[in-house]
Amino acid sequence: MAGADTQQASLASRERVERALAHREPDRVPLDLGAAPVTGMHVDSVYLLRQALGLDPPGTPVKVAEPFQMLGAIEPDLLDAVGADAVSVGPLNNFFGFPQEDWKPWTTFGGTPVLVPGLFNTEPDEQGDILMYPEGDTSVPPCARMPSEGFYFDAISRQEPLDDQKLDPADNAEEFTLLSDADLAHIENEAGRLAATGKAVMFVVGDTGFGDIAFVPGLKLKHPRGIRDVQQWYMSLSLRPQYIHEVFERQCEAGLRNLEAVNAVAGDSISVVYVSGTDFGAQDRPFISPKLYRDLFKPFHKRVNDWIHQHTS
Questions:
Q1: DSSP assigned state of 312
Q2: What totals of helices (H) and strands (E) does the chain contain, helices first?
Q3: Beta bridge partner(s), residue 106
Q4: SS (HEC) of 265-291
Q5: Which end of the chain offers a freer environment for a tag, N or C, measured as fewer CB atoms within 10 Å?
Q6: pLDDT tens digits along 199-248
Q7: CB neighbours (10 Å) of residue 174?
Q8: DSSP assignment letter at 39
Q9: pLDDT digits (tens, 9 = 90+) for 174-205
């Protein structure tokens, strides 16, 4: 056993994660901090952690890696300090439809100095809330709001009056588009670079999060159409199941084509695919019935997961 322990203690992060996913015992439980949208840490907390670990001089800003939830970037030195095993790569643009580039200073309500993308264009309203705009375009209605003294953004409902006779599933699938050549070049380069560090690379694909309530309001769209109100969407799962099914069909088609394109350029570098962040449960009960999940969601999850298992490692 001592020899086996010594051998396992030398596992690189990528092998540690891949052993766990293959149901083979690794040297320890793999740790993910910030490689997925659901495993991140608020930028205020990332700043405090970096200060506590002595990684930065006081006042050193932290990049906002995901502005909807205001998640802080988990840089390589912090990954190593906490022993994290995974890193992520995804398309160039964020939830609000603008790229993570051209960084500029900003300050959170908690007083934390941060860096935000150049198109992170916000305005306060009369209550002191912070308003965010799709693609950073302040000439159109805001898409999200950070409450005064709050920590992250909430989607603003921009629901047009619903007319069942005019509902078109294409409207609710408008944002699920094919990755551009620039996206694929970025993913190929970043996945290769990150894989060379020995970490497990997670590809974050947004198209396969069927019914993800973070996507339903159409945050990156300037004029979203279809069913965009959260309450209306959840009621439509029962009231308009055929409509939702057709939305998911379009979404699934885009997701599978994007997975195929990413696998072609970066498949050997990727260990994990982040498939979905859809919430199916509250604190004490499910959002929907098991039957509704099996009828409406499970067939699409199976198609996506089967494709990944059949075409990638």
A1: -
A2: 10, 11
A3: 114
A4: HHHHHCCEEECCCCCCECCCCECCCHH
A5: N
A6: 999 999 888 999 999 999 999 999 999 999 999 999 999 999 999 999 99
A7: 16
A8: S
A9: 999 999 999 999 999 999 999 999 999 999 98
